[in-house]
Each structure stands twice: as C-alpha cells, then as structure tokens.
Amino acid sequence: MFIGRKSKFSGKANIKACEDYEKENGSFASIAEEIGTTKGTIRIWYLKYKEYGPDVFETSNRNRSYAKEFKLSVVEEYISGKGSTTDLAVKYNIAVGMLSDWVNKWYNGIEM
C-alpha cells in the first residue's frame, strides 16, 4: 500500500502565512510562532511564493526525482559562490535540506 507524503502544513496554511507577511500582518518570526514553525521556514515559503505563486504549495503523491547532472550543476553553483543554499533552493524550487544533502555528499565523495 502506498501512502503519499503529508506535509505538516496544508497549502492553504502556507499561502495564508505568505499573505499575512505580504500584508504586514506579522513578521516571519511572529507568523512562525503563531503556527508552530521557524522564521526560516516562513522566509523560504515566502521567497518561493514570490517566485512561483501559490501553486508552489500544491503537493504531489510522490517524491520528485532529479538527474545526477542536475544535482551536480546545482552543487557546482553553490560551491562557486553563485548563491546560498536558500537562494538556490528557491531558484530551483527544491528543499534546502535536500540541497544540503547533495552538497554534503559531494564534499564527502558520495554518489548522488
């Protein structure tokens, strides 16, 4: 039996947090405290929301897979100083943690 991924927060909650921030109804920190997450999470949500719109929060029943070449190109951008993990995660609409894992694997010579 396949069980799909379930986010702690619904897409509606993500959108509301972004709209609240945009309407100056709170800071990243105050919105995060209100819903029970970190201000860094709210910041990333907002950056992705600004870049891709509310559809960025639509969920999928399965994980996305990425080609090794794509992973390497993003890691190379990071290593060459073309963006932080957050900047590149937003640019490519991937999770910061996933990008960090790719970078760690690259540094440790582990296959991606």
UniProtKB/TrEMBL annotation:
Residue ranges the record marks as coiled coil: none
- The protein's name: Transposase
Recorded hits in SUPFAM superfamilies, A to Z, give: Homeodomain-like, TrpR-like
Top-level taxonomic group: Bacteria
Homology family: Belongs to the IS150/IS1296 orfA family.
Residue ranges of domain Insertion element IS150 protein InsJ-like helix-turn-helix in the record: 70-106
User: What PANTHER family does this protein's entry cite?
Assistant: INSERTION ELEMENT IS150 PROTEIN INSJ
Q: State the Gene Ontology terms under molecular function.
A: sequence-specific DNA binding
